[in-house]
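About this split. The held-out portion is used to measure sequence recovery: a designer receives only the structure tokens and must propose an amino acid at every position. Recovery is the fraction of positions where the proposal matches the reference. Here is one held-out target exactly as it appears in the evaluation file.
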């Protein structure tokens, strides 16, 4: 692997580790916090708390403007070019612009709280709570921009730190206020204060980093930065708005065509999808700065890195997907109980969409955005949106929840295929078909022993899931070198890459050594 590609891979592995660990720990902390808030408030007050956050979170979608992705892209590319002073300015101007949009949304939210509470939520008494929650919007948009800057600067350890600070602050403040008697107000103060604390900590760390790196003034002004960010981010902003509309559209269709029980089963299934997004979101996030660092004129390096990134994304995502499918019944019953009869089927059907990883489902968007071709990303999202909106009513009417999942699969398959077509024709991107075929094959073959275990074992479900998952991963890790999906050179490169991140090396290196030993017996 070329030296610059190796450096990008090292940065990506390190950044991906911190993003994954930060996302995972934050998800756990916030999940436990939500459970405790729900228990302490009770169903009625917890329902009020949940509804109160709907309007601010919905309006928050309009603050993105594509600036967060632009911050990642330009921070990463300017850093590689050594334009540190311009990089510093673009981060500061992005923060200023996002702060202005956050304040604007706060004013709208605060001023029209009575209307939102009455018209949207049908609960006029929640207006005070909405005003209280709206305070957090300005700090939330600043926080999200800071997180993007950390990714672009290859300082994802601070990204993980800031997200954990926000989660811990919310847990401590919300629960403390509730316990001393502030009820819903206390929970909302905890929500708002967590972003105030996290944004304050993040800004302090970010400006310390920028102060250390900046060595001269730059004549790069606000107008130039705004033009750069908006030209890049406008297509992404439209994509975000389209994506934000989809959950609302699905809920409307489900409300019309199916029962409350089916909706509950579908919601339970989508909650487990978080297991997969905890892996895929860090991958897509860290690949954006990775592609941004590569010179788009150096086509060979870009195509090589795409092949590598897509192959290893599939190598990571496919086994987790297969595990969720084969253990879907046990997973749902352990967490929700046997009353959720349809949720395992819905979870398995939703997970099928992740098999699109092989055709670039999780790499193409980062690829195009990294090269600055955000209009292509918009076209991909438009294809997905149009197909989903068109097919969902017909399929949902005939197949209820499965219909809406099938519509999503068709839309995702078509849009990803279109994106791959553009990448191949315009940038000469080629997939590593042989390796990908082997990855799909061993992902399926590795599932056979765990399936047999499930059929024969009389032991509790939790034991079967744990033992079956470990058995699956052992077989999968063994078959990968046996089928030559990975070779000596790749394993040695991987060891070198992961050694740069000590916590990751402690976990990955023994596995890589095991695979090297297998290859030594089967050259």
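Reference sequence for scoring:
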């Amino acid at each position: 692997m070329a030296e610059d590609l190796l450096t990008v891979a090292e940065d990506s592995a390190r950044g991906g580790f911190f993003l994954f660990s930060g996302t995972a720990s934050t998800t756990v902390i916030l999940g436990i916090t939500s459970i405790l808030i729900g228990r302490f408030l009770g169903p009625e007050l917890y329902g009020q708390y949940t509804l109160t956050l709907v309007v601010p979170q919905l309006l928050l979608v309009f603050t993105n403007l594509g600036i967060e992705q632009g911050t990642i892209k330009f921070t990463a590319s300017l850093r590689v070019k050594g334009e540190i002073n311009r990089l510093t300015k673009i981060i500061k101007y992005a923060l200023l612009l996002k702060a202005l949009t956050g304040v604007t949304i706060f004013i709208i939210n605060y001023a029209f709280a009575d209307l939102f509470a009455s018209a949207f939520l049908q609960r006029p008494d929640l207006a005070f709570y909405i005003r209280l929650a709206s305070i957090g919007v300005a700090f939330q948009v600043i926080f999200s921009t800071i997180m993007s800057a950390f990714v672009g600067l290859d300082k994802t350890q601070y990204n993980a730190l800031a997200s954990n600070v926000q989660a811990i602050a919310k847990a401590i403040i919300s629960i403390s206020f509730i316990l001393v008697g502030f009820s819903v107000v206390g929970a909302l103060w905890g929500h708002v204060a967590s972003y105030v604390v996290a944004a304050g900590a993040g800004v302090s760390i970010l400006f310390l980093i920028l102060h250390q790196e900046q060595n001269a003034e730059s004549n790069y002004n606000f107008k130039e930065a705004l033009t750069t960010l908006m030209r890049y981010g406008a297509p992404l902003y439209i994509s975000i708005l389209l994506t934000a509309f989809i959950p609302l559209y699905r809920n409307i269709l489900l409300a019309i065509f199916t029962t409350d029980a089916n909706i509950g089963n579908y919601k339970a299934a989508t909650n487990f999808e978080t297991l997969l997004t905890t892996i895929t979101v860090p991958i897509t996030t860290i690949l954006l700065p990775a592609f941004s660092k590569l010179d788009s004129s150096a086509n060979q390096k870009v195509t090589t890195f795409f092949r590598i990134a897509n192959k290893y994304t599939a190598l990571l995502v496919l086994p987790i997907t297969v595990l969720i499918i084969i253990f879907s019944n046990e997973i749902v019953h352990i967490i929700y109980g046997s009353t959720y009869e349809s949720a395992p089927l819905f979870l398995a059907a939703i997970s099928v969409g992740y098999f699109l990883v092989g055709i670039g489902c999780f790499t193409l968007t980062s690829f195009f955005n990294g090269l600055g071709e955000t209009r292509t990303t918009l076209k991909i999202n438009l294809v997905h949106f149009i197909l989903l909106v068109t097919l969902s009513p017909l399929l949902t009417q005939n197949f209820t929840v499965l219909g809406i999942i099938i519509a999503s699969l068709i839309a995702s398959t078509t849009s990803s295929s279109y994106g791959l077509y553009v990448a191949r024709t315009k940038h000469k991107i080629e997939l590593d078909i042989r390796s990908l075929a082997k990855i799909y094959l061993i992902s399926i073959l590795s599932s056979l022993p765990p399936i047999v275990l499930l059929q024969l074992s009389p032991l509790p479900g939790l034991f079967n899931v744990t033992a079956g998952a470990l058995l699956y991963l052992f077989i999968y890790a063994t078959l990968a070198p046996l089928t030559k999906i990975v070779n000596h050179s790749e394993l040695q490169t991987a060891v070198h890459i992961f050694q740069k991140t000590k916590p990751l090396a402690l976990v990955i290196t023994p596995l890589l050594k095991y695979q090297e030993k297998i290859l030594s017996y089967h050259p």
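Annotator remark: The chain is about 85% helix and 0% strand.
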